[in-house]
Write a structure and sequence with these properties.
A hairpin with an 8-residue loop joins strand 5 and strand 6. By secondary structure, the chain is mainly beta. It has one domain: Beta Barrel (Porin). An eight-stranded antiparallel beta barrel has the order 1-4-5-6-7-11-12-13. The protein has a two-stranded parallel ribbon with strand order 9-10. It contains one helix and 13 strands, in the order H-E-E-E-E-E-E-E-E-E-E-E-E-E.
């Protein structure tokens, strides 16, 4: 808990420092298609994971550097995780599970824009920092015809079955802008394991494809 508060204070300070010099503010929201890479020495555990549909929303700020080059930072509440489905057999029915993890995401991106008359196209690339704030694991199945379902809140920490608060990785994306409106697509891939387990080179890394719609509040 102490580390999470420290990360949140750092996050707020970083965002305020960017906003103090930014010339453009905006709001942003959209859809996340999230999954994970999970593996250890025995192989890839997540090969049957599929995308879990979640969401993101929050604030955006831009700092112009040159006519084409911009530094962009966001503060987004963002859902990540994965979906897993296993077809059942005579004794055990289908097993359907979803991991939801919610983060405060802060990408710090180099953004290049190119003018196409009424429209602009842009590309982005840079690191992101994410602070875990909540999450749960839910599943439903049947055993001998008896329905079984459960939802468990995830725990933060570095022990078995716990998740690390901090996530970091890279983000790459692009899109199109018209006046104050931007439509973008971004791919995030984690560079560090978010699992508290390290035995047998076990790792668990986030992966998210996001589609965003942004509106600039003070577009010039």
């Amino acid at each position: 808990m102490r580390n999470r508060k420290k990360y949140l204070i750092f996050t707020l300070g970083l965002l305020l420092s960017f906003n103090a010099f930014s010339q453009t503010f905006g709001v942003k929201g959209g859809i996340n298609l999230a999954t994970m890479l999970e593996k250890d020495d025995s192989g890839i555990i997540s090969k049957n994971y599929t995308s879990h549909t979640s969401f993101h929303f929050g604030l955006s700020a831009e700092i112009p550097i040159t006519g084409m080059f911009i530094l962009e930072t966001d503060l987004l509440f963002s859902g990540k995780g994965y979906h897993y489905f296993e077809e059942g057999n005579i004794l055990i029915n289908d097993y359907d599970a979803v991991l939801n993890i919610y983060y405060l995401d802060i990408p710090i991106l180099a953004k290049i824009k190119y003018d196409l008359g009424s429209f602009e196209v842009f590309g982005t690339f840079g690191p992101y920092l994410a602070i875990g704030v909540a999450g749960n694991y839910r599943y439903d199945t049947e055993v001998l015809g008896i329905p079984i379902a459960d939802t468990t809140s995830i725990e933060w920490g570095s022990d078995m079955n716990e998740y690390k608060t901090l996530d970091m990785g890279l983000s790459i994306g692009g899109g199109i802008a018209y006046e104050a409106i931007e439509l973008g697509i971004t791919y995030q891939f984690g560079l560090i394991s978010i699992s508290g387990v390290t035995a047998n080179n076990y790792i668990k890394k986030n992966s998210v494809l996001a589609i965003s719609l942004a509106y600039k509040l003070n577009n010039k």
